[in-house]
Structures are given as structure tokens and as C-alpha cells.
Amino acid sequence: MGRRILVTGIDTFWGGRMAQALEQDPEVELVLGLGRTPPRVRLERAEVVRTDQAYTLLSRIVRATQVDTVVHTFLVVDSTKASGRALHEINVIGTLNLLAACSQPEAAVRQVVVKSSTLVYGASPRDPAWFDEDHPRVAQAATRLERSLLEVEGLVRDFAEDNPDIVVSVLRFANVLGPNITTPLSTGLARRLAPVISGFDPLLQFVEEHDVVRALAHATTERLPGTYNVAGAGKVPWREVLASCGALPLRLPPLGTQLAAAPLVRLGVLEFPPELDALLRYGRGVDTRRFEAAGFRYAATTAGAVERFARALRLRRSVGQEPPGYTYEQDVEEFFRRSPAVIRRPEGPPRRTARSQQI
């Protein structure tokens, strides 16, 4: 049998794209996705199961399907997407239920991959220029989001210690830029009015959106144990990013920053979650040599990710809005997959796997 892989958050940006990548690997027999809503991308052979955000049914699903790998993409890393209560339920309770399901005696799970964030390092004036994976954060966690991610990683570490026969991979991703992903930073850049805290011009590190999926696939196919930073090489000044994207600075005062931003957030002019406050003052950089030593090769540096994003913005501005996105409809998908009325072309040469592409 080939690998049987479960992807959490298949209805999210990363979960859907990870499922698409796994579908292309002929060594993967089953791609099973869990989500609260229908997927946002077209899937060819992945099975989709609707569940709640705390994954209370996960134990039954893991036992019944005998999946050998779980890729956990369903962690909130943008606090504008969830209330404080939902944030804790999704990140902490959901991960707790997931790990409990993977460690039950009847489970066949032999690998768990967790998509985390460099938010776990925080941002402060006393930070090192580059955080490696073993460097503790310097400042206390100041936001609910950071605290929840730190709690999640604590749960995952305990799980790895208690289950040495299971390969546990934690990938900490830097801020993402790309033509399709929407984040508070990319939203400001796209609107041509991005937040800047007066008196600060931090050095930031980015990872290009396609490298995120490639990194998750690499850790999954290569069965890499341990924790890895994932970010494009180098750092760039935030104001340089604005200039590249044709955005103007929306200046916020260094004192009472959140208070000053609040009315702009309510009016929809600005997205400024609490986790951006320290980042746009002090920046953050992470050392990625461990993941590169594990065989991963980035398609874009930090500067390259910014340039690709800026190029996509210029194209979008010149040609107008993008066409409507894909809408998942169960009946339609079942027709195309299973109906004898659909004429299926003979398969061509086998596609290269992620390993043969030297991701």
C-alpha cells in the first residue's frame, strides 16, 4: 500500500494546497482532508470529511482510515481570523485532540507534521539578529495568538517525547507573501496604504507562498524529525517593501499605537492585529540552515518573494480583478470522479514525486 495521509484544515488556504500537492504524488494512496466547510480549491482524488474546529471526531476517523501520516495545517496564525475563544479552541484544543487521536493504541500514525509560525519567537529590541530553532524567545508573549502557538508547540514536544516511534516535524514559517495568500501585511500593500510605526523601519523576513507548500511536502515525503525554521534568505526593510509594492505609509504613533489604529481597523481602512505591533517596530530574522541541511532548496529569497508579490500586484492592478474563485460542490465532484459517463483519458507518463524533483 502507498501512504495514507490526513490533512487538517483542508478548507483553508494551506490545507487545500497541501492536499493538491499530495494528490500529485503516486506514492500517496489516500489523501483525506478534514474541514468545517467545503474546500476552496479543486481536488481530484482527496476525500473530504466535515468536522468541527476542535476535531472531536478525529479519533474515530484515524482508527477507521488507518492513516499513517497527519499534516496539521489548521493553526490560526492571524488573530483577525478568530476571536480569542475560537483561537484557543482551534489552536490548543484542536491540536490536543489531534495528538490524542494519533497516540491511541489502534492508530497507525507514524508521522505528524505541524505547520507553526516564527511568531513563537516574538519580536523585541533584545532579540538576536537571527533566531535558530533552539534559541528561546527573549520577551514574554504579549498576545493571545503567540501564547496559543507556544502552548501548541509545548503539546507537540510532549507528544514527541512520549511517542518516540512517531516522526514529529514542526515547521516554523516566516511571514508569507504571494499572489494568492491574503494576510494583514499583504492587504495593506495591495491597498497601497500599509501600516508604519513612526520612528521604526524594521528588517523583515518573508517566505514565498509556493515555498510554504513545497516545504510541507518536503518534510512529509522525507519524514524529517525535529523543528525547522522556514524563510527566504535575507531580510529587507519594511519601507523598502512598501516602495517595491507602490504603497504609501499609513503612519501610526509609537505610543498608543493600538489605540490609534483601532478606529482605522473599525472603518476597514487598516488590518493591524496585535502581533504586528512588535514586528513593525523590531522586525525578526530566523536561521534556516537546519532545513537547508535537510535537503530543502528555496525557490525565492526574501527579496525575491517581495519582488514576485510586487510583480503580481502590478499585473493585477493593470488587468483588473481576478476571476471568481473555485466553489466546491459535492454532487459535481462525485459526478466527475465516479460517473461512467465521464470519458477518462489514458494516463500519461508517471509524474515526478516531490523527492525526484529534489524539493
From TrEMBL:
Residues 5-231 form the NAD-dependent epimerase/dehydratase domain. It holds the Pfam family Epimerase. SUPFAM superfamilies: NAD(P)-binding Rossmann-fold domains. Gene3D superfamilies: NAD(P)-binding Rossmann-like Domain. PANTHER family: BIFUNCTIONAL POLYMYXIN RESISTANCE PROTEIN ARNA, NAD-DEPENDENT EPIMERASE_DEHYDRATASE. This is NAD-dependent epimerase/dehydratase family protein. It comes from Aciditerrimonas ferrireducens.
